[in-house]
Amino acid sequence: MPILETPFARLDLVRHPEQPNEPLQAFDAADEYLLDHLHGLGLDLGHEVLVLNDGFGALACSLARHARVTSSGDSHLGHLALQRNLARHEIAPEQVRFVPASEVPEGPFDLVLIRIPKTLALLEEQLIRLHGRLAAGARVIAAGMVKHLPRSAGDLLERHIGPVQASLAVKKARLLSATPVPRPAVVSPYPTRYRLEQPAIELVNHANLFCREGLDIGTRAFVPHLPKALGALRVGDLGCGNGVLGIVYAQGNPQAELTLVDESYMAVQSARENWQAVHGGRPADIRAGDGFAEQPAASLDLVLCNPPFHQQQVVGDFLAWRMFLQAYAALTRGGELWIVGNRHLGYHAKLKRLFGNCEQVAATPKFVVLKATRQR
């Protein structure tokens, strides 16, 4: 396993969730470049440092013994990785304060370190929130791999922070250093909203939501086929996003007991607000989590899932397979997993291997809705 070695620390970091024979490392050249650059600028224990979108905790763990560190991001999996990596290096958990992206870090901060996220709307929201939370003389430095660093990221830094200087590329990584200048407060354009025609509901979507401007085509293919009138079942919406599957299912099944889980804090924030708007005080368990890792075994009768096919910039079906395993463990005997997926991903073969059966419920030219039943 590669070691992250910088002037601040020598770290053996892990990703979360880990894969067997893990093919990916928990840091990249942008983390190394940023830490090496920071060492040249100087840092002391009194500095208040805000780290945004730290992936698996490489920056926060490196700096935990050198400054007062607050880490903020939208990934619960990233938060779990940070906790694991702090423990691996015998760093007290209280040395890094974690703030979910659904909340606003307090400040004032002397230094802000940013890993440019995949969703630039999240970056824009984070930069808007920095207004009034930077100390005098504060520095803001963003980093990313060149292939994942669009020009618009620098434009956002320029608009919301101040003049930007781009570094030379080192190991295909680049830094963007912004000099804060006084700016008037900006009203955030987030969350956004859109309306569905059937059912007629409006959905709130915070900045880091997938398909923030309208219902994604996979979910659109799934919604008309959600089962109705099944009675008082215990139902899980796994990877709930803005909560649309669980919310619509609950409309057609007024006696059902719903659990909605997502690893994105902004998704959970959106789902809670949308549930409240549609269902008022009807009880539901809506939480951030590592899928159903903490869900009791055999505690659900039905699971609904539109599985993701990426983690940060990495594309693959590892997370989907892990979610299928979690759903299987959470289902009672006779319980069902309903999913939607792109035809080419071959989820039917994976479900048949795991459950011993798989039935196609519906199909469009691009998507299939599948059902698998736990038989033992």
Automatic annotation (TrEMBL):
Principal EC category: transferase
Gene Ontology molecular function: methyltransferase activity
Alphabetic keyword roster: Cytoplasm, Methyltransferase, rRNA processing, S-adenosyl-L-methionine, Transferase
EC number, UniProt record: 2.1.1.174
Residue ranges of every copy of the Methyltransferase small domain listed in the record: 201-371
Subcellular location as annotated: Cytoplasm
Any one GO biological process: methylation
Catalytic reaction list: guanosine(1835) in 23S rRNA + S-adenosyl-L-methionine = N(2)-methylguanosine(1835) in 23S rRNA + S-adenosyl-L-homocysteine + H(+)
InterPro entries: DNA_methylase_N6_adenine_CS, RLMG, RlmG_N, RsmC/RlmG, SAM-dependent_MTases_sf, Small_mtfrase_dom
All copies of domain RlmG N-terminal, residue ranges: 1-180
Xref: HAMAP family: 23SrRNA_methyltr_G
Family of the protein in this entry: Belongs to the methyltransferase superfamily. RlmG family.
General function of this protein: Specifically methylates the guanine in position 1835 (m2G1835) of 23S rRNA.
Protein name: Ribosomal RNA large subunit methyltransferase G
Gene source species: Stutzerimonas tarimensis
Lineage, highest ranks first: Bacteria, Pseudomonadati, Pseudomonadota, Gammaproteobacteria, Pseudomonadales
